[in-house]
Amino acid sequence: MNQRLTPATALLLLVPPLLWAGNAVVGRLVTDLVPPITLNFLRWALAFVILLPLAGSVLRRGSVLWPHWKRFAVLGLLGVGCYNALQYLALKTSTPLNVTLVAASTPVWMLGIGALFFRQKVARRQMLGALLSIAGVLLVLSRGEWAALLQVRLVIGDVYVLLATVAWAFYSWLLARPDDPPELRNHWAAFLLAQIVFGLGWSGLFAGAEWTLTEAHLQWGWPLAAALLYVAVGPAILAYRCWGLGVQRVGPNVAGFFANLTPLFAAVLSAAFLGELPHLYHALAFVLIVGGIVVSSRR
After folding, report:
1. Using 50, 70 and 90 to split pLDDT, how confident is the model at 298?
2. CB–CB of 254/296 below 8 Å?
3. pTM for this one?
């Protein structure tokens, strides 16, 4: 794993937050069409179907996957079964401001979990980078008025996002461990499909509980179909591919700072689709977040 951030790797790590920003917008738009946990199950079921022709051999009896099934069951639980399900669930009970604010703690969780569970040292530049990055996110969330942050009140949805962030930090650190057979690690579709097949089991259980314990309903139609196609191909397949490759190249600590670009991309998408033009504080926040990435990745 090379800790040096190259322009090619930086471009690779820009793709996931852009697609995740679109995922948040789409997830919010379809809250009345599909239950949140069911949405997560359907997106990964569609992703499974798309990847099956590319890497279906990894599921055959005798594949190198099965001796490592416990590891991929954990990856599937954290990255497929929990992360987005918790985020979609949070959008039902919390405000976008709170959801993004709690998710902005990703670099801190990356550093803390790496130090506590994976014996990674936290350098001063990484802590400084985390502070710069979070300051940039807070600037966006407060719309340039810091007093707005004092009015934030935590609800159960914020707890869901916090759990999602912790799950994503563990998932990213597990990705960085070179414990997988080369046949899996070097074949991106097989590596992702190996996670999805177990993740579908977890998300299927969670979706079943959702339909049992709540008054869940589906409203089928072209809007939902288009949303499912986007969240399956973009935030699921492409974003996970780029994120996994980026984490392998520079490690979770550096990659984690790129996740904080998601609110900025969300602001750009809001300008494009909702007519909300960016302001000066968006540019200042961009400088802070990019500054955090640069500081944290320097040797």
Report:
1. low
2. yes
3. 0.80
- Could you tell me which residues come within 8 angstroms of residue 215 by beta carbon, excluding any fewer than 6 positions away? none
* 177-208 tens-digit pLDDT: 777 788 887 888 899 999 999 999 999 999 99
Does residue 290 carry a pLDDT above 70? yes
Q: Which two tokens stand for residue 161?
A: 């996002």
Structure tokens at 87: 């985020």
Burial class of residue 177 in the structure, from the number of CB atoms within 10 Å of its CB (0-12 exposed, 13-18 middle, 19+ buried):
exposed
Mean pLDDT of 21-43: 88
> 106-117 vs 124-141: helix axis angle to the nearest 10?
150
H or E stretch at 63: none
Q: Is 124 exposed, middle or buried (0-12, 13-18, 19+ CB in 10 A)?
A: exposed
CB 95 within 8 A of CB 158: no
Please say whether the beta carbons of 130 and 108 come within 8 A.
yes
* Long-range contacts (CB closer than 8 Å, 24 or more residues apart) made by 239-245: 239/15, 239/16, 239/19, 239/20, 239/23, 240/16, 240/79, 240/192, 241/188, 241/192, 242/12, 242/13, 242/15, 242/16, 243/13, 243/16, 243/172, 244/175, 244/188, 244/191, 244/192, 245/12, 245/188
Q: Percent helix, strand, coil in the chain (nearest 5)?
A: 80, 0, 20
Residue 135, Cβ neighbours under 10 Å: how many? 16
Residue 1, pLDDT > 60, answer no
Please identify which residue in the block is written with the tokens 């997988």. 180
d(CA 77, CA 79): 6
Condensed to tens digits (0 to 9), the pLDDT of residues 88-140 reads 888 777 766 566 666 767 777 888 888 888 877 777 777 887 788 778 777 76
